[in-house]
Specification:
By secondary structure, the protein is α/β, with parallel strands linked by helices. It is built from 30 helices and 14 strands. Among the domains are: 219 residues, 3-Layer(aba) Sandwich (Rossmann fold), CATH 3.40.50; 97 residues, no CATH class. The radius of gyration is 30 Å and the shape is elongated. InterPro entries: DUF3419, SAM-dependent_MTases_sf.
């Protein structure tokens, strides 16, 4: 028994070693034919056969570690066809039929009335036939023929794909024309392939001249043309629906990563339609590599009371966490434009938007209510990525772990919350904080707050010791670096606080003490409840996460949201508005702040300085319709730029000041302003 028991692992290990050696041998066979194989024959079919015949049986295992664009292409197509049946799919240059096996993982083959694998290479078609027979696919047909000439027996196809084949078809115009001519009006054409950009290409495709030269010459050795002409021609024939540009590793070739793209198009409906936010600027220099805020840090309730939102409204707002942009839609705004110069904030809101459009409520709740999702990788691949822009796709594909560790512990504010929670735990205050967050009544919350040793000390301790302690906290936790990268408070806004004669530690103490004494965290203050716990509650969360409101957004309201990654002033000039929410945007500006900037930021002074304030005020006067409302908050009790907005033609009113007491559920600002655009005859 003992010897027999020992033989199992040894046998398994020996089998594994043999399989590994066999896999290495197969890879080397493929590599030999890739690098040293010749293409002989008078016709394209003969040249393909001479190239693939010796490697056809080893083709699939090697290509699965090389052709990285196949799965995202199939997932994107499946996501758009999942509600349809009796589909016709033609895989042009389908090779061994591996795409069909992959598609079955994203969209069961029962959705297809017929699948045609079309390829000119006899050896690859033979592998396809073996695969079809082995899997018992009755609706899959292998056609040994030319993609330029194949005719769909049913007359039209719902899906046509070119998976790493268009770059190997010399008369690619004929292949594209043939495919487009047989595509149903509501059909999709998908392409995955290697590529190099043109010298002057769209920003999301652009690459350095060295990479263009290197990769095009390398692939040209095998008569594979990966130039930009094919995609350019596709876009004269079809309307682009989705695209990503990325790079993937190559088996047995260290360091080098081959560029590939995935492109989906459909017959033209609106020739002027383009992805608005993909052409905008990147983040200014010295911006963090991720977002600062996972949620919007301004209370939307006071906003809604003064803005009188209606269906005729076109509203411009800064993105931040994006929660308040969606709240505007739920309050009836016809069109909401949400802009942020940090593309990570735009990517966060875009993920929320696509999740609402494509997922069930429970999945959205897990992602953005709990901040975690156990199956985020699969969800992203099959339901989210196929609808994200290039910028958002690039951002999220390497950060899905956010939803493993907890979304609300990521980004600047999230990391600050995590650090404060860790400090609370080290100081034995962790459970006290939890009790505070979950106090059943406001009275009990006040009792819990005042009983905290740290709070009691700050309110009742010796003044000298309290002063020394507060200065130490200000030095360690509330310095300019932490406030900028953790709380999004730049130097200019910090200066505004100091100009009011309020030390930063007292400013922050006023904020949190006002919340603890006046706002019930468990019942209605989801902002700080989330900071303490790292998640929301179903009855205490941003409006878009409430099930009834989610249903309204998914029912069509979310389509009224435009996400722009760029500068506020550019988006303000783009259209007329009835309502504008400046948040604390103007606090960040001023010539005094420009003088403090590192040289690296001087290229971006067009979005800074007092001159900008004057330009902003003048542009508001031009773009906000008469009777339109502009609101903002400030860290200053009397922000100096309010007069510039008044001089531009607005009736400016200060609605609240922190010096008068508790402000709102965020309570983080010193003043709240409204400006109404006067009529031009006034």
């Amino acid at each position: 028994m003992g010897r027999g028991g020992d033989a199992g692992p040894l046998k398994l290990k020996r089998t594994f070693s043999l399989e590994s050696l066999s896999s290495v041998k197969d890879d080397l066979v493929v590599l030999r034919h890739l690098w040293f194989g010749s293409k002989k024959g008078d016709s394209h079919a003969q040249r393909l056969e001479s190239f693939y015949s010796k490697q056809a049986s080893k083709y699939d295992k090697f290509r699965e570690k090389f052709l990285w664009g196949r799965r995202p292409m199939l997932a994107a197509a499946a996501a758009r066809l999942r509600d349809r049946h009796d589909l016709i799919w033609v895989d042009m240059g389908g090779g061994t039929g591996e795409n069909v096996a992959m598609m079955n993982e994203y969209l069961p083959l029962s959705h297809f009335k017929a699948v045609y694998i079309v390829d000119l290479c006899h050896s690859l078609c033979e592998q396809s036939r073996l695969k079809v027979e082995a899997n018992g696919w009755k609706n899959v047909h292998v056609i040994e023929g030319d993609a330029c000439e194949f005719v769909v027996p049913e007359g039209a196809a719902d899906l046509i794909t070119f998976s790493y084949s268009l770059s190997m078809i010399p008369p690619f115009h004929d292949a594209v024309d043939n495919a487009v001519g047989q595509l149903a009006q509501d059909g999709l054409l998908g392409v995955a392939d290697f590529f190099v950009s043109g010298k002057y290409d769209t920003p999301m495709r652009q690459m350095h001249w060295g990479r263009r030269f290197f990769w095009r010459s390398i692939f040209d050795i095998d008569n594979i043309d990966i130039g930009p002409e094919r995609r350019a021609y596709l876009e004269t024939k079809l309307e682009r629906q989705w695209e990503i540009n990325s790079e993937g590793s190559i088996p047995w070739v260290p360091y080098l990563r081959a560029p590939f793209f995935v492109w989906l198009g459909r017959p033209w409906v609106d020739a002027g339609k383009q992805a608005h936010h993909e052409q905008k600027v990147e983040a200014p220099a010295l911006f963090p590599p991720t977002f600062l805020y996972t949620q919007s840090w301004e209370d939307p309730e006071p906003d809604m009371k003064v803005m009188r939102i209606c269906p005729e409204d076109t509203v411009l707002t800064l993105t931040s966490g994006g929660c308040n942009a969606m709240n505007l839609l739920l309050h009836g705004a016809g069109h909401v434009v949400s802009v942020d110069c940090n593309p990570a904030q735009s990517s966060l809101l875009e993920l929320k938007q696509v999740a609402i459009q494509q997922l069930d409520y429970e999945d959205v709740w897990q992602m953005f209510g709990e901040g975690k999702h156990p199956h985020i990788e699969r969800l992203f691949e099959t339901r989210l990525a196929p609808f994200l822009s290039q910028k958002a796709f690039n951002f999220w594909q390497t950060r899905l772990w956010y939803f493993k560790q907890g979304l609300y512990y990521q980004g600047g504010m999230g990391k600050l919350c995590w650090v404060l929670q860790t400090l609370a735990m080290c100081c034995g205050l962790h459970f006290s904080a939890k009790r505070l967050a979950n106090a059943p009544t406001l009275q009990e919350q006040r009792k819990q707050w005042d009983s905290l040793a740290l709070v009691y000390f700050c309110k009742n301790g010796p003044q000298l010791l309290v002063w020394l302690f507060s200065k130490l906290l200000a030095l360690l936790l509330f310095n300019r670096f932490v406030l900028w990268f953790g709380g999004g408070v730049p130097g200019k806004q910090y200066a505004l606080i100091q100009q009011d004669g309020i030390p930063i530690e007292k400013y922050l103490a006023r904020t949190v003490d006002g919340i603890a004494e006046n706002s019930h965290l468990r019942k209605s203050n989801y902002f700080y409840y989330n900071c303490i716990t790292g998640h929301f509650l179903r009855d205490n969360c941003p409006s878009y996460l409430r099930q009834a409101e989610f249903a309204k957004l998914q029912g069509g309201l979310i389509n009224g949201l435009t996400i722009a990654s760029g500068f506020f002033l550019d988006e303000l000039r783009a259209r007329k508005y009835t309502k504008v929410i400046l948040m604390d945007h103007v606090d960040w500006l001023g010539d005094a702040y420009v003088q403090e900037l590192p040289v690296i930021l001087m290229d971006h002074v067009d979005w800074l300085g007092d001159a900008y304030v004057q330009e902003l005020a003048a542009t508001l006067a031009q773009q906000v319709l008469p009777g339109g409302i502009v609101i903002w908050r400030s860290a200053s009790l009397s922000p100096p730029y309010a007069q510039a907005i008044a001089d531009a033609g607005f009736a400016v009113t200060c609605l609240q000041r922190a010096s008068d007491g508790y402000m709102d559920r965020v309570n983080m600002y010193s003043s709240f302003y409204m400006a109404v655009r006067k009529s031009k005859t006034a």
